[in-house]
Amino acid sequence: MIRSELLAELVQDNPDLRPEEVERIVDIFFEEIAERLAEGGRVELRGFGAFSTRERDARKGRNPRTGEAVDVPAKRVPYFKPGKDMRRRLNEN
């Protein structure tokens, strides 16, 4: 599902809200998650999962085009851990 499909579903499920209002709510939701992660925090949505960041150490990498060794700096990357309910739903047969 892409963002526009998500917005369309939410508008359909909430006819009392204008599409602009739904879009603003979605924007705020994702912006708050991104902002909290940028601060080094964690966002937990019960029954869905938790968003956090993980540290990646600096390392030597390779340019796939030339094969030349390059330095890859240390960085933080986003991480998602699904909640128990989400894992159960994904593995139902």
Overall description:
With 93 residues, this protein is of the alpha+beta class. The protein folds into 2 domains: 1-39; 41-93, IHF-like DNA-binding proteins (HU Protein, Chain A, Irregular), CATH 4.10.520. Helix content is 41%, strand content 29%. It contains 3 helices and 5 strands; from the N terminus they run H-H-E-E-E-E-E-H. It has helices at 3-13, 19-38, 84-90, and strands at residues 43-45, 49-56, 59-62, 69-72, 75-82. The strands form 2 sheets. It has a 3-stranded antiparallel β-sheet with strand order 1-2-5. The protein has a two-stranded antiparallel sheet with strand order 3-4. Strand 1 (43-45) and strand 2 (49-56) form a beta hairpin. Helix 1 (3-13) crosses helix 2. The longest helix is centred in the first third of the chain and has 20 residues, at 19-38. 0% of the residues are buried. The model has no long low-confidence stretch (mean pLDDT 95).
